[in-house]
Specification:
Blueprint: H1 2-7, E1 10-13, E2 15-18, E3 21-29, H2 46-75, H3 77-80, H4 83-90, H5 93-106, H6 110-126, H7 131-152, E4 166-170, H8 175-179, E5 186-191, H9 199-207, E6 211-213, E7 227-231, E8 236-239, H10 243-265, E9 280-285, H11 291-296, E10 302-306, H12 320-334, E11 338-342, H13 369-375, H14 377-390, E12 395-400, H15 406-426, E13 435-440, H16 443-447, H17 449-452, E14 458-461, H18 463-471, H19 489-504, E15 508-511, H20 522-528, E16 532-535, H21 540-549, H22 552-563, H23 568-587
Parallel strand pairs: 3-4, 4-5, 5-6, 9-10, 9-16, 10-11, 11-12, 12-13, 13-14, 14-15, 15-16
Antiparallel strand pairs: 1-8, 2-6, 3-7, 7-8
Helix pairs in contact: 2-4, 2-7, 4-7, 5-6, 6-7, 12-14, 13-15, 14-15, 20-22, 21-23, 22-23
Length: 588
Amino acid sequence: MGDVVESLEKRFEGIAVAPGIARAPALVHWVEEEEIPFRKIPKAAIPEEIARFESALIATRAELLEMQQKIAEAIGTSDASIFDAHLLVVEDRTLIDEVLKSVESELHNVEFAFNLVADRYCKTLNEIDDPYLRERVVDIEDVTRRVLRHLLGKSTSGIHAHDEPHIIIGHNLTPSDTALLNRALVLGFATEAGSKTSHTAIMARSLDIPAIVGLHDITDHITSGDPLLIDGYRGILIVHPSPQTIQEYDAYEREKDLVEERLELIRDTTSTTADGINITLSANIESPAEMDDVIEHGAEGVGLYRTEFLFLNREEPPSEDEQYENYRIVAERSAPHSVIIRTLDIGGDKEASGLDLPEEENPFLGCRAIRLCLERPEIFKPQLRAILRAAVHGHVRLMYPMISGLGEFRQANAILEECKAELRAEGTAFREDVEVGLMIEVPSAALSADLLAREAKFFSIGTNDLIQYAIAVDRVNDRIAHLYKPTHPAILRLIRMVVEAARANNIWTGVCGEMAGDIVLTPLLLGLGIDELSTSATLVPRVKKAVQSLSLTDCQALAEQALRSSTSSDILQLCVDLARSRYDDLVS
């Protein structure tokens, strides 16, 4: 009988997004798609349709606020702020006006009109090259479903109604589904869709629920009630785990618990290598609300503040004063450490209805980031002024994205000097000596780093874009994602070139892309001469432990050997070997 049970075991591998191990029966979750009624309405019925729409929006907004309040009380305001994006959807004037226009001019019933407009928004976002913004489709779909249910007079989903411990299996979960999961009963979840940057993944980590995403077609292989084991460390889902597998995982789980306890103990220590070299370890954020996480996980300030999220899902761009308030809060809470504020990285491939951006045939290579800001000083200058003013309240550094050469850097700085002159003339308090750096994320910037380093105060390498542009691979394209190689020899050479140019001019180099949070690659980055690493706050303790376990001498030897290697797999193996030899408990 034992042999029969063991033979049923099947393993599936996806993307690990929230660590932890759990065992429980499966609950396969199917999203009930609403059937949208379509009917033509008489003109006399328009006011009634509009009134129903307004009522549904009000009810949805109240529902979201209530949910946000519950989350804030349960796990903190940082995670509750995720629902700000949902609230912006129900308050989006452009979306609402489009729906009303459809009702009034096409004489469609409001359910049909709203679903049509929301669907169009989702398709637009799905075509954007930025994976973070593509993930926002889930937010819009979530809100759309709620509004439609209010219009149709239906109750909310029953995903939370089960009263026995279980692991949820589904195509995808919305952030609101995830936020309201009962942690005592939902021991883990695995989905077919999703990525590490999705709100659902972020929420799973905050709730401490083991989770795996990217398990294509997993719902075809599992039935509710199947015994499951979920390994959120390695992204492995096991169906019908054998007694031997369960025994192995019991031991593995005990080891992981000890690791977490040890990581907690180093929270307030510095990220210094075993041979005494300090590596600045900071965190990436998108809003001031995330500062709680930055502090809680022992990061040394903020290495990347993505300011574009202030500009999304709104009819008008934020005012200078609104931006100043946001930047001031982060500057004050980061002190005595610094915050690097990246100027607006938007345009072309990112949706910002308030900026009235034209469509482009190839937006990823189009008028975006610094190119847009140089073209639209009425957007750029208020942000620069706000950053200069906020710098009075802490250690603020300013960073331009997508710089491709010295000409753009100088143009941006010329506008910055104009802003200083204006503030000076007005008698407005600001910081004259804000350090100005730039992101190295396109090959031309890396190749001209020697020129840029003469005028910049620091470099921060955006490895996600640099890798994509350097080897021409869209890492979220399923067909070619396997070609995305952070350890490609060309990437190493570009990073080394940037570091050497920076050191020759006495400035420092950081990394703020995903490579910074990958502890297998920490030895390589240190060996190549990186001075600062900035990653998501939750990864800071692991990266800190990795840094503390390494000697710079060993890392430099690894980097030299890697630079002589011919293939990405050879280089990756060198990294894995050194990482395992120093902190095997963190790697697997």
